[in-house]
């Protein structure tokens, strides 16, 4: 293998730029129309990782000058109570975006809860209506992580038209909307998944390779076409490299791509952490701003 050469795509820096731009637009919206976009986040149960995400979302929403509301409910909350909260938020004029943090505790039906969210406030873009709008090239609220990936890709590559893109993963949250956005950008798109035959050969076709699987370092260096741009969405916790720290239970985060191998083959790659991850909340703020504008008829579509 040759020396490392891939450009590192600094998601933290892009996210900071996006948050600053959103904050400026929020300030303008307030000054010109007296409108303050509002985001409500609902957290059910006491999952530690979810609690951290939710706290960060609240802090960053306020830092952007928006109104933020966090509803923390016990794990034993009945389905009807959760749905009643969503109904209240649907009707609340202060709230333009509603996000129910997933996964919900066992016993709660997340599909039913998502289906109750007003599609125009569904800033996670998970409702059937928003998935349909996206697939039909209509103005949609689109899941935040794929939107963030597109911001990075457009900046690194520019015009994506005609490029071969392979997305590994077909979840409603990530793989499918990612593929739709790449298709809208005129890429030739392949969606790969756990039943794909000869995944390595499929990946080697890709000018743009997006890995959204959840398997540590599954994508090896020799799966990557030389010069490809690699977007690593995976977040996987594995044992620390240092055997002593590992023995003490210390962990580290890695992506779905064998990063060190990819460095010498890709032209650009997102690191984990610090690549795709920071873009997600920044895009959530942008979706909330978009929702507020649309609800108040301040944006076409
Ligand atoms: P998911 O719902 O579990 O979907 C995983 C997808 O990977 C499925 O479509 C699955 O295929 C596919 N897959 C599993 N094993 C495979 C294999 N051996 N070969 C090929 N494909 C395989 O996960 P997700 O919600 O999309 O998330 C994917 C990863 O992205 C996770 O690590 C998650 O933590 C991360 N993520 C990060 C962010 C962020 O902000 N950075 C946001 C969202 C997700 P089948 O459909 O055939 O089962």
Notes on the structure:
The chain has helices at residues 11-33, 48-63, 79-91, 110-116, 128-135, 144-157, 175-184, 199-203, 243-247, 259-263, 277-295; strands at 7-8, 38-44, 67-73, 97-100, 164-168, 188-192, 208-211, 229-232, 236-239, 251-254, 268-269. The protein has 301 residues and is an alpha/beta fold. It folds into 2 domains: 34-119, 3-Layer(aba) Sandwich (Rossmann fold), CATH 3.40.50.10860; 143-277, 3-Layer(aba) Sandwich (Rossmann fold), CATH 3.40.50. A 6-stranded parallel β-sheet has the order 1-11-8-7-5-6. α6 (144-157) packs parallel to α7. The relative contact order is 0.17. The mean pLDDT is 96. Residues 145, 168-171, 173-175, 192-196, 199, 212-215, 233-236, 276-277, 280 line the site of NADP nicotinamide-adenine-dinucleotide phosphate.
């Amino acid at each position: 293998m040759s020396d490392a050469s891939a450009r590192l795509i600094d998601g933290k820096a892009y996210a900071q730029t996006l948050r600053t731009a959103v904050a400026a637009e929020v300030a303008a919206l307030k000054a010109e129309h007296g409108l303050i976009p509002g985001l409500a986040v609902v957290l059910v149960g006491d999952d530690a990782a979810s609690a951290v995400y939710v706290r960060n979302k609240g802090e960053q929403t306020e830092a952007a000058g928006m109104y933020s509301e966090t509803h923390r409910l016990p794990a034993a909350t009945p389905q009807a109570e959760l749905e009643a909260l969503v109904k209240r938020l649907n009707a609340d004029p202060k709230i333009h975006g509603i996000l129910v943090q997933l996964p919900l505790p066992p016993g709660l039906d997340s599909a039913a809860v998502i289906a109750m969210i007003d599609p125009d406030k569904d800033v996670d873009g998970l409702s059937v209506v928003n998935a349909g709008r996206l697939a039909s090239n209509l103005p949609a609220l689109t899941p935040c992580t794929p939107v963030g990936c597109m911001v990075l890709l457009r900046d690194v590559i520019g015009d994506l038209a005609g490029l071969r893109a392979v997305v590994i993963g077909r979840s409603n949250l990530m793989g499918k909307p990612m593929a739709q956005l790449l298709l809208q950008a005129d890429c030739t798109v392949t969606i790969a998944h756990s039943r794909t035959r000869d995944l390595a050969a499929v990946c080697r076709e890709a000018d743009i390779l997006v890995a959204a699987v959840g398997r540590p370092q599954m994508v090896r260096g020799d799966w990557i076409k030389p010069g490809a741009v690699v977007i690593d969405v995976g977040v996987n916790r594995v044992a620390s490299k240092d055997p002593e720290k590992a023995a003490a239970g210390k962990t580290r985060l890695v992506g779905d791509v064998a990063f060190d191998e990819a460095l010498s083959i890709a032209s650009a790659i997102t690191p984990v952490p610090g690549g795709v991850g920071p873009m997600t909340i920044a895009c959530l703020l942008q979706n909330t701003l978009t929702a507020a504008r649309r609800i108040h008829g301040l944006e076409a579509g």
